[in-house]
Design brief:
Blueprint: E1 3-7, H1 15-28, E2 35-43, H2 44-50, H3 56-72, E3 83-87, H4 92-105, E4 110-114, H5 126-136, E5 141-144, E6 155-159, H6 167-180, E7 183-190, H7 194-200, H8 212-236, E8 241-247, H9 252-263, E9 267-271, E10 273-274, E11 279-280, H10 285-292, E12 297-300
Parallel strand pairs: 1-2, 1-4, 2-3, 4-5, 6-7, 6-9, 7-8, 9-12
Antiparallel strand pairs: 5-12, 10-11
Length: about 300
Amino acid sequence: MKKVLWAVDAFAGEDSFHKKVLAALKAFDSSGDLEIEPVMLLLRDEIMAVDSVMKFEDYRSSAEKALESFLKKLKHPGLKAGRVIVSDRHSKRHAIRELSGLAQQEKFDMIAMATHARKGLGRFILGSFAETLLLVSTVPVFIVNPKSEFKKVKTILFPTDLTNASRNAFDQVIAYAQKQNAKVILFHQIPNPVEPLIGAGMNLLGGSYVPVRRFFDEEKALKTKDAEEWSKAAKEKKVKVEIHIELRTANIADNILKVAKKYQVSLISMASQVGEVESVLLGSITRQVIRAADCPVWAFHCKRMG
């Protein structure tokens, strides 16, 4: 983990809001080894639709000056000079793909950004921007919401369905945890077998009673075995992994947040996870966690990895 693309909006008008991202990155890598390059994306069509009087090149010049002024207020050993890039695409989704493509082409290890900005001329509307980026980015995304608190990363929560799709992300988290001397909480949630029966509205299994406790005990034994196999690689790197498996009793995102609070984690790392019984989708569960988490979220898109 060396290079970070920091998506900023110098027109947002809330320096403290963007400064939270930099503070979170400092906590993410307290060694100061990260190279952080601020990038401001201008959407030509969106800007011209709002302000057809001002010439776009004048607007771009204003953006460059605003970015330069914003960065002068910041101090970080790895902070690079910022740049403004322009997208001529007609949709925000395509523009975001361009940003993701830039990060991949220039071999950035991560894209960092805040979840939203409340005001500002030509703002990203970072809430929808960040959520769309999660869906399309081939590069891991580091998201900070306004409620996030920052401290040196000592405990990382990694929710997973224990399928091969998320194993690559887990290996990267372990490599990071080794560097940070951090502990990893490997969290898996077993779906309640009663829920699909009720949701299907069918008389499955011949109308017989579903033995939830027996199902849970058997599934827990199987999943614990899988989790222990995952943790072997971590132990070889001297990374402590604590396994936490429970039966689903609430919304998945709510349970992730509950476990994060229990272990007082300083970072949640998530990946797209697809299981046979239910899906933990990057586009839904991760968004819910990001909106409510008290710490930064490091998100991977497993289908685009490996």
